[in-house]
Amino acid sequence: MNRYVVLQQLGDGTYGSVVLAQRRDTGEKVAIKRMKRKYYSWDEAMNLREVKSLKKLNHANIVKLREVIRENDTLYFVFEYMRGNLYQLIRDAERPFPEPVLRNILYQVLQGLAHMHRHGFFHRDLKPENLLCAGPELVKIADLGLAREVRSRPPYTDYVSTRWYRAPEVLLHDTHYGAPIDLWALGCIAAELYTCRPLFPGNSEIDQLYKICAVLGTPDREEWPEGYVLAETLRFRFPVSSGVPLARVVPTASPPALALFAALLRYPPRERPTAPQALRFPYFAVGVALGVPPPTSRARRSAVRVETEIAPVAAPTTRTDRFADILGGEVVHEARPIVEAREVREIRETARGRSVVGAGVGLSISAPRPPPAAAAYLGAARYIAGTRIDTSLFRPIPFRSHQETTAVGSGAARVDWAAKYLR
């Protein structure tokens, strides 16, 4: 710890305190988390969930763990420094942020969640205080002290996450929850970003469930039978409520945003979208239409005309993708047509610089074009704050041959790239 100079206290929590420090040699600012519990061996320290998860997770939207230090049986975590969190950003905002800014924030959080879930972890304590930021332009998921592995065996503890962002199955003390609880918490955070106030500010677990039912309505027994079984075990009866339209609760949200919120805030965990599915919602497609039509048959013109029929890709059923009606079809890459052996030989010989005449007809080769499915993917499946990717930039650029050539053993000419760039 003598390599760091402590500048100020940043916060104090249940398990540790966080200070702002600076490296003596480089001047880099870092956040150091000092654990309150004593650790008497390195094995005990390295088996912590926060260490195990951060060692495996390396993503631009997940806070980076620089190093772990143990001195005098005290454990220190050195993190990259982010100057604020999402709660402070909301609290200090003079007016609500415009939707493109909020869309960018949610997109970054979903990217981090998708990476985390893909590598077998779910956060369990997602809230604005645990989303560090450097302004609205950069957001990172932090505080993975309660993270669990998806493959770890239940039962899990039923007291996870801050109450306002706790999923209904966790409020009903379900011990077999999973990654969908992170998507519920993100839905609550998303609505709070628009309104600058909590969506379900319950005073207790029972009051939290009542506030959820007051907005979303009473859950359907046929839709969520597991929830009614949990409620009957706790002797809890869901209040009868027809709910309130989300458009009235979050009046500044656009229809695509409301569609995303409604999907994230579904009672049955299996009905909530995964993080990759949420990233494909129309809310994140700015100025483009998601969904690529199935490729049709097309002919390739050359000395030998080859026609190949490409079978259309079947639309996903509700069993494989229950959000197909919202997301549209899957992006499919066009299969390459089968080329006859003679045409392959002619193309290769033409590429070597030889003049090929087959059956009295000259062979002309045009510059390759990107397949339409790939171009549509580049234009539709990426979000860039308020704009779209110009796919015309991805057209192949032809290289002009140079005069300096070197003979190859086969007699074909080869461009001397070294002579070209050393001029």
From TrEMBL:
<dbReference type="InterPro" id="IPR011009">
    <property type="entry name" value="Kinase-like_dom_sf"/>
</dbReference>
<keyword id="KW-0723">Serine/threonine-protein kinase</keyword>
<keyword id="KW-0460">Magnesium</keyword>
<dbReference type="GO" id="GO:0004674">
    <property type="term" value="F:protein serine/threonine kinase activity"/>
</dbReference>
<dbReference type="InterPro" id="IPR008271">
    <property type="entry name" value="Ser/Thr_kinase_AS"/>
</dbReference>
<comment type="similarity">
    <text>Belongs to the protein kinase superfamily.</text>
</comment>
<keyword id="KW-0966">Cell projection</keyword>
<protein>
    <recommendedName>
        <fullName>non-specific serine/threonine protein kinase</fullName>
        <ecNumber>2.7.11.1</ecNumber>
    </recommendedName>
</protein>
<dbReference type="InterPro" id="IPR017441">
    <property type="entry name" value="Protein_kinase_ATP_BS"/>
</dbReference>
<keyword id="KW-0808">Transferase</keyword>
<dbReference type="InterPro" id="IPR050117">
    <property type="entry name" value="MAPK"/>
</dbReference>
<feature type="binding site">
    <location>
        <position position="33"/>
    </location>
    <ligand>
        <name>ATP</name>
    </ligand>
</feature>
<dbReference type="InterPro" id="IPR000719">
    <property type="entry name" value="Prot_kinase_dom"/>
</dbReference>
<dbReference type="GO" id="GO:0005524">
    <property type="term" value="F:ATP binding"/>
</dbReference>
<keyword id="KW-0418">Kinase</keyword>
<dbReference type="GO" id="GO:0005929">
    <property type="term" value="C:cilium"/>
</dbReference>
<keyword id="KW-0547">Nucleotide-binding</keyword>
<feature type="domain" description="Protein kinase">
    <location>
        <begin position="4"/>
        <end position="284"/>
    </location>
</feature>
<keyword id="KW-0479">Metal-binding</keyword>
<dbReference type="Pfam" id="PF00069">
    <property type="entry name" value="Pkinase"/>
</dbReference>
<keyword id="KW-0067">ATP-binding</keyword>
<dbReference type="GO" id="GO:0046872">
    <property type="term" value="F:metal ion binding"/>
</dbReference>
